From TrEMBL:
SUPFAM superfamilies: Acyl-CoA N-acyltransferases (Nat). This is Acetyltransferase (GNAT) family protein. The keyword Transferase applies. Keywords: Acyltransferase, Transferase. Residues 1-153 form the N-acetyltransferase domain. InterPro entries: Acyl_CoA_acyltransferase, GNAT_dom. It comes from Streptomyces jeddahensis. Pfam families: Acetyltransf_1. The lineage of its organism: Bacteria, Bacillati, Actinomycetota, Actinomycetes, Kitasatosporales. One of its GO terms (molecular function) is acyltransferase activity, transferring groups other than amino-acyl groups.
Amino acid sequence: MRIRLAAPAELPLLQDIERAAGEPFRALDMAAVADDEPPAVEMLERFRRAGRAWVAVDGEGDGDPVAYLLSATVDGAEYIEQVSVHPRAARRGIGRLLIEHTAERARTEGLPALTLSTFADVPWNAPYYARLGFRILEEAELTPGLRKIRAAEAEYGLDRWPRVCMRRPV
């Protein structure tokens, strides 16, 4: 498996990965999450141009992406905006590889931690991240940027299911 920056022509493939990765939410009575449209190509392009849209590809990197990760800097930490793995590539450690790649990049940029916001009770969300060393942040620990992200998620309707912010040192 190889991690590299996404290419412009691959951005529609990232949308396909996102749609496919959303399907398992149906089994948890979270059809609204499964039906949610992936980020627009224009938004994906902004992450790509900023050097923060990473893909995982089989072999030497000549194949199509099977997973991707988007990140940004929020309040002095690397915030994982999205990590999605196509179900046909699931359970192979690809999400972990993308997260470790992001942690290494954050370390080289002098950032102290990775942060994210996720569903608390979805097995491949908060419990998965906890196994990777993330811890749930208490309300008082949320930075202004994380509070803003949580408010936007609530406005979007994601608070129908419990959500948490998490942090892991790099």
